[in-house]
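User: Please fill in residues for this 262-position structure.
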C-alpha cells in the first residue's frame, strides 16, 4: 500500500497491492501467464503500495480522510492507466478499490480490478517500527469473451523501519494465489526512501515473486507540489539482468484530502 511525512502521524500509503503485471517478449503464452499472475507486487501485494513504490509501507491514510492515486506506466509494447482511490473510515483500516485499463501489442486490451483492506497494527514512530497487514484480490478481465475472468488473492505484511531524518526502509513478506494457474507463491519486497530536500524524496526498491525469474527493481522521485496534499512522481524500472527493451517508465499523481468523513 513515501512522501515526506510527519513521523508520529499516520502516513498515507497507497496500498496496492499489488504487483502489477510485467510483460516480456518471449511468447504469447508466457505473456498471458504473466497477466494471470497480476501482482507481483509483493509490492507488493503484494498490495498496491504508496506511489510510486510497489513495496508497501506500514502506515495508512489519515483517519476520516481519502486519497486518490493515478498513474500511467509504459513499456516498449504496452501502456497501463491506473486509478486507485482509498479511504480510512476508522478503526485503523484503509479500504481501497480501483483498477486499470491497458493495451499490449500481442494480447490487446485488458482490465484489472483491485480491492483490498489494510490494517495498521503499529504506527511508524520516530523510534518505533511500524507493522501492518494487507489482504486483497485482483480480477482480470481479458478482452475476448472466450477467456474467463482470472482472479488472484494476496496477503502482505509491510514493516517500516525509521532511520531518522525522515529516512525509511520498508520490508514486505507476503503470499499470492493465482487461481487460473492453480499455484500459490511467496512474494517479497525491500525499498527505501531518502529525502533530498523538504519537497523531493528519492526512492529505490527491489521486489519479486517466488519461481517467476529474476527480481525487479525501480528507482524514482516523489515531489510535493502542495505539501501533504498533492504529490507527483516518476520512476524507471526493469528486471535485474534483463535488456533495456524490457524497461518501463511511470508518471503519477497523488491527491490527499483533509479529514471529512463522518
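Assistant: Residues filled in for all 262 positions:
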Amino acid at each position: 500500500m513515501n512522501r515526506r511525512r510527519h513521523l508520529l502521524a499516520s502516513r498515507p500509503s497507497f496500498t496496492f497491492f499489488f504487483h502489477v503485471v510485467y510483460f516480456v517478449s518471449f511468447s504469447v503464452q508466457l505473456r498471458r501467464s504473466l497477466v494471470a499472475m497480476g501482482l507481483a507486487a509483493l509490492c507488493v501485494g503484494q498490495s498496491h503500495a504508496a506511489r510510486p513504490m510497489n513495496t508497501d509501507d506500514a502506515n495508512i491514510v489519515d483517519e476520516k480522510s481519502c486519497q486518490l492515486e493515478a498513474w500511467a506506466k509504459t513499456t516498449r509494447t504496452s501502456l497501463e492507466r491506473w486509478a486507485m482511490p482509498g479511504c480510512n473510515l476508522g478503526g485503523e483500516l484503509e479500504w481501497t478499490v480501483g483498477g486499470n485499463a491497458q493495451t499490449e501489442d500481442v494480447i490487446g486490451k485488458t482490465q484489472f480490478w483491485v480491492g483490498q483492506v489494510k490494517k495498521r497494527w503499529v504506527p511508524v514512530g520516530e523510534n518505533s517500527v511500524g507493522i501492518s497487514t494487507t489482504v486483497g484480490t485482483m480480477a482480470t478481465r481479458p478482452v475476448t469473451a472466450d477467456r474467463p475472468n482470472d482472479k488472484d488473492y494476496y496477503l502482505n505484511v509491510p514493516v517500516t523501519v525509521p532511520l531518522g531524518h525522515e529516512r525509511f526502509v520498508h520490508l514486505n513478506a507476503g503470499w499470492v494465489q493465482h487461481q487460473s494457474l492453480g499455484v500459490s507463491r511467496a512474494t517479497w519486497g525491500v525499498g527505501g526512501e531518502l529525502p533530498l530536500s523538504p519537497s523531493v524524496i528519492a526512492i529505490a526498491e527491489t521486489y519479486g515473486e517466488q519461481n517467476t525469474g529474476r527480481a525487479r527493481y525501480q528507482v524514482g522521485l516523489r515531489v510535493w507540489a502542495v505539501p501533504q496534499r498533492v504529490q507527483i512522481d516518476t520512476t524507471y524500472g526493469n528486471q535485474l539482468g534483463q535488456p533495456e527493451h524490457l524497461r518501463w517508465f511511470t508518471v503519477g499523481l497523488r491527491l490527499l484530502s483533509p479529514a471529512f468523513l463522518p
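For context: The first helix runs from residue 28 to 37.
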